[in-house]
Structures are given as C-alpha cells and as structure tokens.
Automatic annotation (TrEMBL):
Cofactor descriptive note: Binds 2 [4Fe-4S] clusters per monomer.
Subunit structure of this chain's protein: Monomer.
Enzyme class label: oxidoreductase
Binding locations of cob(II)alamin: 60, 131, 152, 155, 166, 213, 238-239
Encoding gene (name): queG
Location of the protein in the cell: Cytoplasm
Coiled coil feature spans: none
Protein name: Epoxyqueuosine reductase
EC number(s) given by UniProt: 1.17.99.6
Organism: Lentiprolixibacter aurantiacus
Gene3D superfamilies named among the record's database cross-references: 3.30.70.20
Family: Belongs to the QueG family.
Domain 4Fe-4S ferredoxin-type: start-end pairs: 173-205
Main location as per UniProt: cytoplasm
Length: 306
C-alpha cells in the first residue's frame, strides 16, 4: 500500500511530469477562516449578478460534502504566461484566454493524475475540479503551501508570480500534508493603486461587481455608463493587477502547446476588432474561453470602448 508520505511524493512527481508548475496537499476539512469572509463578501453584494457564488455555501467550505469521506485536497498550478502578448494600442483580452479553454486542458491533466493515483494505490474515490464547481481554489492552494493570497485576491508565488490556473483533486486517501507559506505582499499597494475601476476596495478584498472581468464576461446586461473611459481598452477580462505585481517579474513563458494563441489573435489591431465578424470570432476563438462572452457580448464590449 505504501505510506501517506510515499503516496504524496509519488503524486507530486507525477504532477510535475504532467506539466504542472507545482502540487501541494491539504487535509480535507471545513475552511473555518474562509466562512465569515465569504459570508461578509456575499452580504455586501460583491458578487454582483454572479448568483452562482451564492449557491452551495456549505459545499464551498467543506470538501467532504463534495466527495464522500474525503481525506485530502490535492492542489495543482498550471502556468499560462505567454511568450508573446498582443501589440500595443489594440483592444486587449486577458492572457489566460489566449489559448484553448483552460477548463478542458486542466481537467484532462487532472484526470491523468487521478488515473495515476488509482494505478499506484488501488481503489480511490475522488473528483477533479477546475474553477467550475463550488470549491475555493485559492484558499486550498494557499493552505497547501503553493503561495499566499495577495492584496489583489490572487494567489501569488515568490518564484513564479501569479499567471497560472489552479485545479484540485479531492480524494478519500490519507496523504502527507503541506502547510501554508507566509504573506510577502508587505507594504506594497501596486495593485490597489493601479486598478482602473478601484475594484480592490481594501487590501485582500475585491468587489467582484466593480471588476473589469465582471463587466466584460459575467454581466449579461449593458455595461453601466459611469464605467465609460475606465476600461483601459480591455474587452475580455483584465490583467492590470497582475501586470503591476512585483512578483510577476519572475513569470516565465509556459510550455503548454494548447495555450498557444491563434496566429491571427496577436496581430489584430483596433480596426480588426471593431470589424470582427461572427465567422472570424468562431475561427479565432473556436476553443477559447472567450466564447463565454459570445460574439454579441464581445461586440458589446468593443462598442462600449469605441
């Protein structure tokens, strides 16, 4: 059978082989510290129209409600920092959406990791999660020592910054557990100072309903007119609080072929975006997360900035 230590070592080695930046493991318990924070955030309406954030409150805080007899939460990071970015002076999309939709890429790798665990340990009950279920990804990654939650509410890691996706396996297998790392934001307020819509209302608290990502992806109605002139040319997502974070000077380009941008994307100027047809949208963003906003949503975002 092997010991919890040996299993944890083998899982981390396999995660590395699969291309994950890092892997950390936590005991599957109720997230006591997160409960009052999440409740306060929801009471203040900072989720805006993201009603799904209000659902499954208990499941968000207790992985044992998602997987029967869960013992461990295995968190992994996958780098998406691109080698090349869009040209200056064009409409911008968040770097995470340059390549194929991360949900599919991450899920596939996590399934492979789960298969490895089953092959090496025997029968293990578990589920893979990538940002689409009631799991507090960043809290688990921080608990597992993969980084700390920064003032922009992103997970930050000293060696690699924050341009990565987070996923996890929740399993009913006892493992050796990691501990959290210390916060290294110090007195820095770069992200708070740079946020175009002042969505970071205080250190470590982001009002989701004021974030450019919310307006350009989640909001289904028209964007409020008082936001005009504040979007800094972002039409899908926003990377400002990551761009100004000093820890991202350590970001290195990813090596995941599926995250390579469509050749036409990086060359698109403002005119190309303004004249984008449904056909070009389908071709360039065929497997991209940009499809979430749909063609009509992207056109709305562009019109708002014209």
């Amino acid at each position: 059978m092997g010991s919890p230590e040996k299993h944890a070592e083998a899982i981390k080695a396999e995660a590395k082989r699969l291309g994950f930046l890092s892997c950390g493991i936590s005991k599957a318990v109720f997230l006591e510290e997160e409960a009052p924070r999440l409740e306060k955030w929801l009471k203040k309406g900072m989720q805006g129209e993201m009603q799904y954030m209000e659902n499954h409150f208990d499941k968000r805080l207790d992985p044992r409600l998602l997987v029967d007899d869960a013992k461990s939460v295995i968190s992994v990071l996958l780098n998406y920092f691109p080698e090349k970015t869009q040209d200056e002076g064009t409409y911008k999309i968040s770097r995470y959406a340059y390549g194929q939709d991360y949900h599919h890429v991450m899920k596939s790798k996590l399934r492979q990791l789960m298969e490895f665990i089953e092959e090496s340990v025997g029968e293990v009950n578990g589920r893979a999660f990538v940002d689409s279920a009631p799991v507090l990804d960043k809290a688990w990654a921080a608990k597992s020592g993969l980084g700390w939650i920064g003032k922009n509410s992103n997970l930050l890691t000293q060696q690699v910054g924050s341009y990565y996706f987070i996923g996890e396996l929740i399993v009913d297998l006892e493992l050796d557990y990691d501990g959290p790392v210390t916060d290294h934001c110090g007195s820095c307020t770069a992200c708070l100072d740079a946020c175009p819509t002042q969505a970071i209302v205080e250190p470590y608290v982001v009002d989701g309903s004021k974030c450019i990502s919310y307006f350009t992806i989640e909001l289904k109605n028209e964007i409020p007119s008082q936001m005009r002139g504040k979007f800094d040319d972002w039409i899908f997502g926003c990377d400002v609080c990551q761009e100004v974070c000093p820890w991202n000077r350590f970001s290195r380009p990813h090596s995941e072929p599926l995250f390579q941008p469509h050749p036409e994307l990086l060359a698109m100027g403002k005119k190309d975006w303004e004249e984008i047809t449904a056909e070009v949208f389908r071709k360039v963003f065929k497997k991209s997360a940009v499809k979430r906003t749909k063609y009509a949503g992207l056109k709305r975002n562009i019109r708002f900035l014209e």
